[in-house]
Amino acid sequence: MKKFLAIFLSTCLILAGCISFASCQTEEENNNTSASTTAQNTESQETTAAETTEQSSETATEETTTEEETDDSDSQGGLISVEDGIIHISNAEQLYAFNDYVNIDYEDLSGLTISIDADINCKDMPVWEPLYLDGGADDLVIEGNNHTISNIRIVGEDGEQNNGFIGIYSGTNLTIQNLNMSDFYIEAYGQQNAAFIGYIGANTTVDIKNCEVYNLEINGYMDNYSEGHKNIAFRCAGFVGGNFGGFVTIENCRAETLKMTGFHNLAAFVGYDAVDGLTLLDCSALDIDITFSYTESPSYTVTNDHRETTDQMYNVVFVDPFYCNAKWTEHLELDEGNGNTWDQVFYHDNEDPNAPTYTPDKFRSGVYDYDYDYIKD
């Protein structure tokens, strides 16, 4: 019996030990499994975090690239952009940004259309710097859409030339249409001054159609000519200051309420047409007041070389209701034959306060003797 109990107790102890060992082994396996799972979770989290960081980095890179591409496609703070070959301008800020786009960035405008999409008042804006289109502007169109740009001011320094919305154009083809300029002011100390274009170069074609200039003042100075053209303004007009070899057509346009002061070559539409390249059709000039100065320059003394007779001083003075040509000849009847009209156009001689106010049809009726004293008819 005792032997049996001893065997029974030994067996129980062995079973208890086995169970304890199995329990420890299971706990260890569970702990290992838990640790493994934790490690896998940690690794998974680290992988996810790395992937998220990489994706965020890629997204940031894409956003940066997109912003850089936007900056490259836009100009002047995003105010100017080219869309389907058109630059749209709707306010004064965009107009002046376009000025920087041309004069500072030197962007090529060839083949583009500049669309003025609203009336633009530049009253509170800085002095206008004339657009310098000396190349890089072939086949350019400025479409006004019957809108008006108003209150542009230009102040030229001593001897500064070529003043206007466009200072110089020397491309191949320029069209300006359906655009009006009003309350335009130029303080001029040099040559070629006008609302639309100061200077047109040779071998160009310029068409100006259905446009108006009204309330234009060109304050052209006439002092110290003998000191080398200093402070002398000439070739002043409503549309083009001087055409030096271009083929220019101005059609169905109007110049109204223009007040201009200058030495010579003053007219409502073109101050100087050097090679008879101008065609003026169906245009009208109304309320044009021109003050000229004949005797300011000793180099312009009246001689027989400058006139057919010795008594017609005003044959050598360039003032006209429409344009002045290089031949110093009268062409009023020819202009009227092309459908052009004028009314209330007056000339004043700044150097002779006793001279009467002239109208275009009576301008050359006054004569001077050899001492240049005025003699009435």
Shape by Cα distribution: globular
Q: Any idea of the CATH topology of the largest domain?
A: Pectate Lyase C-like
Stretches where pLDDT is under 50 for at least 5 consecutive residues are 1-9, 11-73, 296-315, 366-377
CATH architecture of the largest domain: 3 Solenoid
Q: What is the average per-residue confidence, as pLDDT, rounded to a whole number?
A: 78
H-E string:
HEEEHEEEEEEEEEEEEEEEEEEEEEHEEE
Total beta-strand segments: 27
Number of alpha- plus pi-helical segments: 3
The CATH class of the largest domain turns out to be Mainly Beta
The fraction of residues in strands falls at: 35-45%
**Largest sheet, strands/sense/barrel:** 13 strands, parallel
Distance between the termini: 172 Å
Helix content: 10-25%
Q: What is the total domain count?
A: 2
Backbone structural class: alpha/beta
Radius of gyration: 41 Å
Question: Could you walk me through the main structural features you see in this protein, from its secondary elements to its overall organization?
Answer:
The protein is of the alpha/beta class and 377 residues long. It folds into two domains: 1-75; 81-375, Pectate Lyase C-like (3 Solenoid), CATH 2.160.20. 24% of the residues lie in helices and 35% in strands. The protein has three helices and 27 strands. It has helices at 2-73, 92-103, 332-337, and strands spanning 74-75, 80-81, 86-89, 113-116, 120-121, 131-133, 140-150, 153-155, 166-169, 173-188, 191-194, 197-200, 205-209, 212-220, 234-237, 240-243, 247-251, 254-262, 266-267, 270-273, 278-281, 284-292, 319-320, 323-325, 341-349, 367-368, 374-375. Strands 3, 4, 5, 7, 8, 10, 13, 14, 17, 18, 21, 22 and 25 form a 13-stranded parallel sheet that branches. Strands 6-9-12-16-20-24 form a six-stranded parallel sheet. Strands 11-15-19-23 form a four-stranded parallel sheet, with no helix packed on it.
